[in-house]
Amino acid sequence: MRIIVQKYGGSSVATADHIKAVADRVARAHESGLSLVVVVSAMGKTTDRLLRLAHEVSSEPSPREIDQLLATGEEQSVALLAMALHDRGVDAISLTGPQAGMRAEGRYGSGVITEIRPERMLSLLKQGRVVIVAGFQGMNALGDVMTLGRGGSDTTAVALAAALEAERCEIYTDVDGIYTADPRIASGARRIPVISYEEMAEMAWRGAKVMHPRAVELGALYNVEIHVRSSFAFAESGGTVILGGDKLQRIETRETVAGIVHDLDVARITLSGIRTGPGTLSRIFSPLAERGISVDVIVESAPKEGTSDVAFTVTRSVYPEAKEIAEEVAGSLGGAVEGEIELGKVSVVGTGMLNRPGYAAKMFATLAEARIPIRMVSTSEIQVTCVIPEEKVEEAVRLLHRAFELEEREDV
Amino acid sequence: MRIIVQKYGGSSVATADHIKAVADRVARAHESGLSLVVVVSAMGKTTDRLLRLAHEVSSEPSPREIDQLLATGEEQSVALLAMALHDRGVDAISLTGPQAGMRAEGRYGSGVITEIRPERMLSLLKQGRVVIVAGFQGMNALGDVMTLGRGGSDTTAVALAAALEAERCEIYTDVDGIYTADPRIASGARRIPVISYEEMAEMAWRGAKVMHPRAVELGALYNVEIHVRSSFAFAESGGTVILGGDKLQRIETRETVAGIVHDLDVARITLSGIRTGPGTLSRIFSPLAERGISVDVIVESAPKEGTSDVAFTVTRSVYPEAKEIAEEVAGSLGGAVEGEIELGKVSVVGTGMLNRPGYAAKMFATLAEARIPIRMVSTSEIQVTCVIPEEKVEEAVRLLHRAFELEEREDV
User: Which among A148, A186, B45, B90 would be 20 to 30 A from B319, CA to CA?
Assistant: First the structure.
């Protein structure tokens, strides 16, 4: 069997007509002789609507009941897609996450897939049936449904592709691939035909919304070839292929950056003049982690007279809570807290940057020339990120896209 | 443990505010020390909305996928009710039908409960928790969810009450009990405080919409005391108690009819001049049953010269299909078919009618006096039903309600 896993996001199944269009695409793939497992998200804004209802009936809905509630969104989509396929003469069957053998554990609302029991899916595929699986959900040890948190449907698809040893995992979304920058900002932005897991994961973490980094990392772990495609384009061509290791080497050995990504939802918190010593950072970040607050860029200044400054960024929605926690900690360490919202991030990502410090310098120079102040810097092997004022982000994306010659390059 | 099963229908949980009102009622019952299992239907018109979606994506949605889709309606209600109870300090937990151990078999869309594994519910009740169970669904041998068809949530509640050996099963609905006639038609109609299973089942079959006869019959089988109450009234009093056997004997020995019920959705089909013989009726009604068409009143005329007339009633929605089948059969039996829609039924129901043929005579006389033509008659031990023109039904209900002295009687 040549098994392909396809995943359609919420915007691809938002209405009955969207579902029929997806059914057309699935039917075509089925006719071409592939064995198909199709992962579907909840229709359009269903999840938001259900969450709103939950907050109408309860001031603090329990995570277990939220999961019980939200899981129904995907369960509706899979049943509807199966029906639409029947109408096209395709023998499809819908499965909830538990029915598909998806096992999960962890906290409700952010479950982690622990195991997939593929027997039922494999036996259905052998009968020539198309298997439609509800994304974003699994069953825990209690027999209860558990949602997988952000990026859960992408993660379901990639995990299924790994468990079923699928030829590839196709992620259908509302854009036709990964771009060198956001085309709405940088008019010269081009689609990236092939990208490595590492680059894609960095781009996803740094602001590219197309695929969740968690799913990309899972793909890397099991070496699942991932294709990102538009669910609205008729042609099967185009898109971006994400792969790694040997496969990537054979396809290209790129020596440049892959793209520019940005994020407009950034706030900074700085603890200044705090006493430093072993365990200082842990005293700051453990209470944040306990409250489930994700911290992005972290910068610590060199200590001076036994004190130093520690700055970090968070998303704006958690800024007030994070600042409150920071104030408590700073108080106990003899320092003060200062913060700033209305910031953004811009990142240059690419394996081409490995061992090439010149790229960071070029980024700083480009921003300096345009008098864009850099508030914080974070670097890793394959990316450089600068935190800058929000109103300068679009300009920075355009300038960097040009400076790194992303417009002119022909890389396939 | 004193276990009570409560059931709330779709209109009782139609909005977030309705759900909160149900939570208030459940919380009060919980505070009074009862162990509660609460069965909930899908919110308001959810089931209709989902069915509409199904017919938008498919011309003939598969029964399995319809069940997968519809089951989500109840699953949303139970999660929301559990959340609302948490807000009131009540430790509630929602369970889908499969999670609650409801096993079912039969055809998708009309599953039959075969077994209830109450272990999880009992252990939760012992911990003092309120258990909220999705009505209308169970799990079949494949591990798939299956809906229980019409009256499924009432049936779930009564079956749970039997399995958990509950003290009683309370059915909350939008009316405050069973009436001697429809109060919108007969202004003197009174609530019936106590009624037997047999009478209630007859009334339900003959048109009383408050409770499904299937649930009543299950209650009779396991001797479950059923209370029908309004979910909108604050007081716990009122309503109608349905019971049987010894319990009923002790409470009352009524010698009169219980009430007048009617049904406006009736069509008649008559096969005339068909050759009679052994197996004739089976040749007529087997093909109808195979197509899932329920037949209500059946009348066969005395055979004359080897032929006879057979007439039966169906609901209007299946009339065209039933007539087509009847025409085929009649053709092969040398007869003709004639039909009539725009009919209604009016029935007089009560154990007081046992061995009292006078009641049927009184009914015919009352209708004759008002010049209401009787098209068909059907009688059983505890009811007499007349099929009459639809436009005469309301008048007939009023006249019979008065003739059987249902307005004046004081029976509790």
Answer: B45
